[in-house]
Amino acid sequence: MIRTIRAKFIVGFFFIFCISFLLLNQLVSQSIETSNKKIVAEDLIGLKKNSSIYVRQAFLINHFTNDQLYFGQMAEEMVQDLRHSTSSSVSAYTVDGKMLYASDKLPFSGADEDLKQALLGKTAYTISYSSGNTSVLYSYPVVIDGTKVGILRFAKDFSLLYEQSDHTLAIIFYIALAIFAVAFLFSYILSRHITIPLIQLTKASTEVMNGNLDIRIGFRRRDEIGKLAANFSSMIEKIKAQITRIEKDRDRLEEVNVERKQFYDNVTHELKTPLTTILGYAEMIREIGERDESLFNKGMDHIVDESKRLHGMVLALLEMSKQTMNRDDFEQVEAGQIVRDVCEAMQVKAKRYSKKIDCHAEDGLFVNGDGDKLRQLFINLIDNAIKYSFAHSDIHVEAKREEQLVRFAFINKGETISEAYLSRIFEPFYRADNKQHEAESVGLGLGICKNIVNEHHGVIRIESEHQQTTVFIDMPYAQERREPL
After folding, report:
1. Do 337 and 448 sit in the same domain of this protein?
2. What is the average per-residue pLDDT within 202-217?
3. What is the 3-state secondary structure (H, E, C) of 441-484?
């Protein structure tokens, strides 16, 4: 059984061309043969008509009582005259089929089927083919006044006619053979042109099915198969990209799940620690607090401190879970003044850590935003700088306008942050194993900062090298609005 398209093309075209060629050759041969017989018949009809006129005229000139006797007497003269007028061999016979005279006996020595038909009163002819020669024997009874007086028989050569017909048939045969050969060759080339790319596409699709997405097909063709190959390659590229994306998403989801679990474990631990302290001191105060003033005061201090720390963590969690605020509620605020106020307020904490804040903020740094949110942003960043900078170091805060942007920079000297940590430092659920993290940190501060900057259409980034960490923030500058007089 033929299974491949290529084999089906070849076998199908070969079968169709062979059948078509044989049918065409047969039809042409029959057509030429029919045409030749028609020409021969017409020529013989003319021959009979002319010879009949000649015989009738001869009988009109000489009236004999016995026409058969006269036909025999004039046979030689009549045969010679008809031979010259018809350019054919002629013979005359009695009504019994006996030859009276022949211009040339050789042509009449063969088949005599036509003569037999003439003896029965019919007109007949036979065609003979011999050694490339074609001759026709033609016989008909001569009837005078309703009486058959003899038989005339003609031998006419039609070799030229059949030679020309054979030559024409041969030309048509070879032309048809050449046309069909060219058509078959073209069909074969076309089938290869179609099937070879299909075979390659089949092999490529099998490779893809087996998981090989690095297979590529390159056809330098602009037809449908070329487009199919290009679409196939594009489809593989998209599938590979989708699979890569799915794998990355899968890995990222696994990381997020791990980080989320770690985050909730940290949050649970951090919430549990102050609650345990508060509960412990509350029970001790209830039992012996009235009798021990020192324990009472110490316990109350711990309860207040842990409550504040617990309150701060709850606020941070709530801040992370809040949705983005409505930007339609933004108003024009002077960010430089907010920075200066925050720096002044954070000086107290910086002194507790033996550090100092150096603030340089220009006037007129207007941005569209929320003043409280910006204050929280600056507090978080300065607080981080205080926590993670070297002791007895200065923290530099700068705010200035650069064209249509307001740029803030928070610079502190401290341990260099690794590139791996910098790439994920703003992720809320990511907490690196870093010595710089305080015990109470759960990795929410910078995530909150990024959310605030995004809400204000700004950009935040961190650079850390040579034991210096700088946080840059760019926000769109808002032209100062002046109240009408």
Report:
1. yes
2. 76
3. CCCCHHHHHHHHHHHCCCEEEEEEECCEEEEEEEEECCCCCCCC
Q: Per-residue pLDDT for 356 more than 60?
A: yes
Domain boundary among 170, 200, 234: 170
Q: What is the DSSP letter of 394?
A: E
Work out the end-to-end distance of the chain between its first and last CA atoms, rounded to an integer number of angstroms. Answer: 99
pTM: 0.42
pLDDT at residue number 252: 81
> Are 349 and 268 within one domain?
no
Domain span including residue 471 = 326-476
In a domain? residue 345: yes
Residues 361 and 265 in one domain: no
Which structure tokens are listed for 188? Answer: 């074969």
Q: What tens digit of pLDDT does each residue of 108-141 get?
A: 887 788 888 888 889 998 888 877 788 888 899 9
Q: Is residue 442 part of a domain?
A: yes
* Separation between Cα atoms, residue 394 and residue 118, nearest integer Å: 143
Determine the 3-state secondary structure of 149 from DSSP: strand
Answer for the pair 355, 392: CB distance below 8 angstroms, yes or no.
Answer: yes
pLDDT for residue 197: 75
Number of domains in the chain: 3
Cα–Cα distances (Å) from 53 to 67, 95, 142, 154, in that order, read 16, 19, 11, 15
For residue 344, being part of any structural domain is answered with yes
Same domain for 317 and 334?
A: no
Instruction: Please name the residues in contact with 279: beta carbons below 8 A apart, sequence gap of 6 or more.
Output: none
Return the sign of the alpha-carbon dihedral for residues 273, 276, 281, 284: negative
Same domain, 379 and 253: no
331-334 and 366-369 strand pairing: antiparallel
> Residues 15, 162: one domain?
yes
Is beta strand 147-157 parallel, antiparallel or unpaired with respect to 356-361?
unpaired
Q: Are 339 and 315 contained in the same domain?
A: no
Residue 181 within a domain: no
Same structural domain for residues 308 and 166? no
Give the residue-averaged pLDDT of 407-431.
82
Instruction: Collapse the DSSP code of 291 into the 3-class scheme (helix H, G, I; strand E, B; otherwise coil) and give the result.
Output: coil
Q: Are 317 and 444 a contacting pair, CB within 8 Å? A: yes
Instruction: Report the range of poorest mean pLDDT among 87-101, 232-246, 300-314.
Output: 300-314
Structure tokens at 270: 């951090």
Q: What tokens appear for 47 in the block?
A: 């021959």
